[in-house]
Write a structure and sequence with these properties.
heterodimer; A: alpha+beta; 5-stranded antiparallel sheet; rod-shaped; B: alpha/beta; about 45% helix
Chain lengths: ~575, ~130
């Protein structure tokens, strides 16, 4: 177009004669105008091209947006200012369950109306009146009726007059996320609880361990393989051979048998496999006396207990050995033993001298004495015997405490022994005007019991002596030997009186050491309160038992039940 | 009876004067021949000089105790058959057992028997068939 314009001006110059200056100027003006017009047209064309490009771009953008919307997992709707749905993306169906066709022309209340009224009020206020974006969490309802939690974001789109033209709403289903979050919170709380519990258990365990560590007895836990699980300090000190340089040796995990053995005092070479015994079904070994043998063969006297360790399900996990060092007790025992010998010897010796001298006097071995002197000496003699009896009681009890081996048991005839003690007490009974009535059932005369020397005699003597002592004058003390009705192979020795009886409140204590019933003490002041204690111990030692029936003021019946010994050689 | 007893020599080993005095007195009265030692060593010396028909032996005595005396006598070919009655106030079973192991005729706990019992047991030991 430009070239045409130039050609034309050249032709005009050629055809026409030279023009006036004014004319030229006029022409020049026209040309200028034409040029301006051309420029303007060019500009418009340029603008149109730009607009076209922009439009193309916008279309492209819209396409992209549409594609994005269609692909999005977030639910997206576009509504008119009244909330009527104009567009819904496929995610709407996925989330709400309503088909797009169902949603179009409806409002989102199709899946809404689950929140309280003020929520919707605030919602509409924000987007419609304030014309601002609303973001928040909302509970909606799927077509199935199931509620779901969503994050929503609604933006008003305004026209040039600043009026709402559309709303764009985007909704994201966070039900799963929320569930997951809730689950996480619950799990966290659970973890916290577990942690707390573990902490508590740990504290408990720590305090038990502290307690076990500091306990005065040795404690050793052993697993089923015989390996040490735990050793407290006392046990560790007890086991450790000092001076070997391994005083601080770690014992955990080491085989128990490599650290020490336990044996009975009588058979130090036969080590006791306490674990095997527990595994073999023994429920426990209680307070057993024995010895602990260290690796260097040195010996410690001990008392020990073994108990099974069980898991919560009752499964056997190992055993717990508790050891008490008895070295000091042993020394006390042997001191006591020495004391007993001394006491027995030193007290009895002058007593026997006195007794025998008086007996010689009474027998007239050193010349005739007047009846008056005789009477006095008889009384002294009687009290000497009483003194000897008291010493015997004291020694018996002391020996019981020492738990010593008192020699070997022998077969003792029950009826004979009872009769011997009755003979011995005849004078005493006569003096208190008590008659003694002995009876035995058929066959009783052949019965023997296995007893250490004098034990059965002591039982009879003590019970009959008591019965006489606590009876009123002119009454009868009955002594009977018969077969036990309750236990086969047992005989029963009963001693019954009609005396002062045992007060109800004091029945529990009657077999206690040095105990005397209050009424007994009022009745007769003398007595050590040791007799029944000795009788009970002796009866039990012989494999028997003792019980009594009594009513205060009416009388008492002591019943001793003893196993009849089988005569192997007879 | 006393004539029969006179032929029997009883040897008492007892350190307590009060007690030994009463034995000696009673046994002499019964017509026995009696000698006395106060400790274990004296006892062993005397026993070698004249072998007794019966020995009444206390356990708790000076120098050598009754067990030791008994052991040495039993180990001596010439003396081992001497009948011995232990006269002690030790009454624990283990003491009695230990004495019995050496072979004794009787074990008497002094304070528990009367003097006539003692004489009876001595007589029974010396004249077993009555």
């Amino acid at each position: 177009m430009q070239s045409t314009h130039k050609e034309l001006s050249r032709e005009e110059e050629r055809q026409k004669p030279p023009l006036s200056e004014e004319y030229v100027k006029g022409l020049e003006k026209k040309v200028k105008h034409l040029e301006d017009t051309e420029k303007a047209i060019l500009n418009v064309l340029e603008d149109a091209r730009i607009l076209e490009a922009q439009l193309r771009n916008q279309t492209e953008e819209l396409k992209k947006f549409h594609m994005a919307a269609e692909e999005s997992s977030d639910h997206m709707i576009i509504t008119d200012p009244d909330g009527v749905i104009l567009y819904a993306n496929p995610a709407v169906e996925k989330i709400t369950g309503f088909k797009i066709e169902e949603a179009i022309k409806k409002t989102p209340s199709l899946w809404g109306k689950q929140m309280k009224g003020d929520f919707y009020e605030k919602f509409w206020n924000t987007i419609k009146k304030e014309k601002k974006k609303f973001s928040g969490e909302i509970i909606n309802k799927r077509k199935t009726g199931e509620q779901y939690v969503a994050e929503i974001s609604v933006v008003p789109l305004l026209n040039e007059e600043n009026e709402v033209q559309f709303f764009v709403g985007i909704e994201r289903d966070i039900t799963e996320k929320r569930k997951y979050e809730d689950q996480l919170v619950t799990q966290a709380k659970d973890l916290e609880n577990i942690n707390e519990e573990l902490q508590r258990e740990k504290e408990e365990r720590d305090s038990i361990l502290r307690f076990l560590r500091s306990i005065g007895d040795g404690v050793i836990a052993v697993d089923l393989g015989g390996n040490v699980l735990f050793v407290n300090e006392t046990a560790s000190n007890l086991i450790t051979v000092s001076g070997l340089g391994d005083d601080k040796r770690e014992m955990k995990g080491i085989r128990c048998k490599e650290l020490f053995w336990i044996a009975s005092e009588k058979h130090p070479d036969d080590s006791i496999d306490f674990l095997e015994r527990i595994v073999g079904g023994e429920t426990s070994l209680e307070d057993t006396h024995g010895i602990l043998i260290r690796v260097d063969k040195s010996i410690v006297p001990i008392a020990y207990s073994v108990n099974p360790i069980r898991g919560e399900d009752g499964r056997l996990l190992g055993c717990m050995l508790i050891i008490k060092d008895m070295t000091d007790e042993r020394e006390v025992d042997s001191a006591k033993d020495r004391f007993l010998s001394v006491a027995a010897h030193q007290l009895r010796t002058p007593l026997s001298g006195m007794r025998w001298h008086m007996e010689m006097l009474l027998d007239g071995d050193v010349g005739e004495i007047s009846p008056e002197v005789k009477e006095v000496i008889e009384q002294v003699h009687e009290n000497t015997l009483r003194m000897a009896g008291l010493i015997n009681d004291l020694l018996n009890v002391a020996l019981l405490d020492a738990g010593q081996d008192q020699g070997s048991a022998e077969l003792v005839n029950v009826v004979e022994t009872a009769k011997n003690s009755i003979d011995e007490l005849k004078l005493f009974a006569e003096k208190l005007k008590i008659s003694l009535d002995f009876s035995a059932s058929e066959g009783a005369r052949d019965w023997s019991v296995r007893s250490l020397p004098r034990r059965l005699y002591e039982i009879c003597e003590n019970l009959i002596h008591n019965a006489i002592k606590y009876s009123r004058p002119d009454s009868v003390v009955a002594i009977r030997v018969e077969a036990s009705k309750k236990k086969e192979g047992f005989c029963v020795l009963t001693v019954s009186d009609t005396g002062i009886g045992i007060p109800k409140a004091e029945r529990e204590k009657i077999f206690g050491k040095f105990f005397r019933a209050s009424n007994a003490f009022r009745w007769r002041t003398e007595g050590t309160g040791l007799g029944l204690c000795v009788v009970k111990s002796f009866s039990e030692e012989m494999g028997g038992s003792i019980v009594f029936e009594s009513e205060e003021g009416k009388g008492t019946k002591f019943i001793v039940e003893l196993p009849i010994a089988k005569k192997e050689n007879a | 009876m006393k004539v029969r007893n006179a032929s029997k020599y009883i040897f008492i080993v007892e350190d307590d004067e009060f007690v030994s005095d009463v034995y000696k007195r009673k046994l002499l009265k019964e017509g026995f021949t009696v000698a006395l030692a106060r400790d274990g060593e004296e006892a062993l010396r005397e026993v070698h000089k004249r072998k007794p028909d019966l020995m009444l032996l206390d356990i708790v005595i000076p120098l050598k105790d009754g067990f030791q005396v008994l052991k040495e006598i039993r180990a001596d070919e010439a003396l081992k058959d001497i009948p011995v009655i232990i006269m002690s106030n030790l009454s624990q079973g283990k003491d009695i057992e230990r004495a019995k192991e050496f072979g004794i005729s009787d074990y008497i706990v002094k304070s528990n028997v009367s003097i006539s019992d003692m004489v009876e047991r001595v007589t029974r030991c010396l004249f077993p068939k009555g």
